[in-house]
Amino acid sequence: MAPRSHCYGPRFDHLHLACVFSFCHVKYQASNLPAIYAYPYFVKEGGLIAYGIDPASLHPRAAGYVDRILKGANPAELPVQVPTKYELALNLRTAKALGLDVPWFLQQRADEVIE
């Protein structure tokens, strides 16, 4: 295993679990290493794979919390909500540039595939 960089998360020889900071995204692209991201918008910018939530889908829930708090609800008594939908995004152009074959079943399961 290589030494840890300024990005948080485990670092392996051939796969990096990338942090969400854009400077890490640029660093991984420049080093031609595959990376898995937490947000789908990194795949649109050239990342290989993303599995996580779409932050924009959380905004309506946040608005509901704000509304309840402004109406006098105690924030400590509000229930904790977790995302119910996770998205898988693949970038086949990046996979091809890295010399990787993405299995067909993974492409079929993905919510978004960039070709």
Distance between the termini: 32 Å
The CATH class of the domain at 16-56 and 86-114, by name, is Alpha Beta
Q: Mean pLDDT, as a whole number?
A: 78
Strand order of the largest sheet: 1-2-3-4-5
* Proportion in helices: 25-40%
Give a count of the beta strands, DSSP E runs of length 2 or more.
Answer: 5
Indicate the low-confidence ranges by residue numbers: 1-21
Give the DSSP E fraction (strand runs of 2 or more residues): 5-15%
Reported for the largest beta sheet, the result is: 5 strands, mixed
Query: What is the 3D form?
Result: elongated
| CATH architecture descriptor name of the domain at 16-56 and 86-114 | 3-Layer(aba) Sandwich
Compute the number of helices: 5
**Content-based structural category:** alpha/beta
Please sum up the structure shown.
The protein has 115 residues and is of the alpha/beta class. The chain has a domain at 16-56 and 86-114: Response regulator (Rossmann fold, 3-Layer(aba) Sandwich), CATH 3.40.50.2300. It has 5 helices and 5 strands, in the order E-H-E-H-E-H-E-H-H-E.
